[in-house]
């Protein structure tokens, strides 16, 4: 429970907690040849459940750090803990603790606006009351959103998404309403 210890009360008392899972759960495997490779042991899946995380996005630049095997292993951990997830250019729909039906569509860096609009419409057709676009984009280390991030976010809202949730910069960026 250590990683979420200082925010656990918020996560346990909310309707749903979402995180960007930027790494894999795997006990073994060869990593990609790159500067940073993120992997936690299978047992670290309990960090999410103990932290009251209900959904994750896997659309990011580290989910394939340990290849297809690491990716499969991660999905197995999430399935085993009943944590909902959306893969890159994929979606998930689920009910929160209070019964609110949420649809999440996940993209990483580049987004086809037509595909995104179609996916938002499909999530609505499947009964999503709230649609979230989980967008892994922008400049790492920047406190400002790029023009491309803003354009994608506006396109998602125009297509009917209720929330655009950005992650990649590893910094807090402004919120627009």
Description of the molecule:
It is a single chain. By secondary structure, the protein is of the alpha/beta class. The protein is 29% helix and 22% strand. The protein contains five helices and nine strands, in the order H-E-E-E-H-E-H-E-E-E-H-E-H-E. A four-stranded mixed sheet has the order 6-7-8-9, with helices on one face. It has a three-stranded parallel sheet with strand order 1-4-5, covered by helices on one side. A hairpin with a 5-residue loop joins strand 6 (90-95) and strand 7 (101-108). The longest helix has 14 residues, at 67-80. It is globular, with a radius of gyration of 16 Å. The mean pLDDT is 94.
State the gist of this model.
By secondary structure, this protein is of the alpha/beta class.
């Amino acid at each position: 429970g250590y990683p979420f210890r200082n925010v656990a009360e918020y996560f346990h008392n909310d309707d749903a907690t979402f995180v960007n899972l930027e790494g894999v759960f795997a006990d073994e495997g060869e990593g990609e040849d790159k500067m940073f490779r993120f992997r936690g042991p299978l047992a670290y899946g309990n960090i999410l459940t103990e932290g009251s995380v209900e959904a994750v996005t896997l659309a990011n630049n580290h989910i394939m750090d340990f290849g297809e095997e690491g990716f499969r292993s991660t999905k197995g951990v999430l399935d085993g803990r009943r944590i909902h997830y959306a893969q890159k250019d994929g979606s998930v729909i689920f009910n929160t603790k209070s019964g609110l039906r949420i649809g999440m569509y996940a993209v990483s860096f580049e987004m086809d606006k037509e595909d995104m609009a179609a996916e938002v419409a499909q999530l609505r057709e499947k009964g999503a009351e709230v649609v979230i676009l989980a967008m892994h984009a922008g400049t790492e280390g920047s406190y400002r959103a790029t023009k491309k991030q803003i354009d994608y976010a506006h396109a998602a809202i125009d297509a009917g998404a209720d929330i655009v949730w950005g992650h990649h910069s590893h910094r807090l960026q402004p919120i627009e309403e």
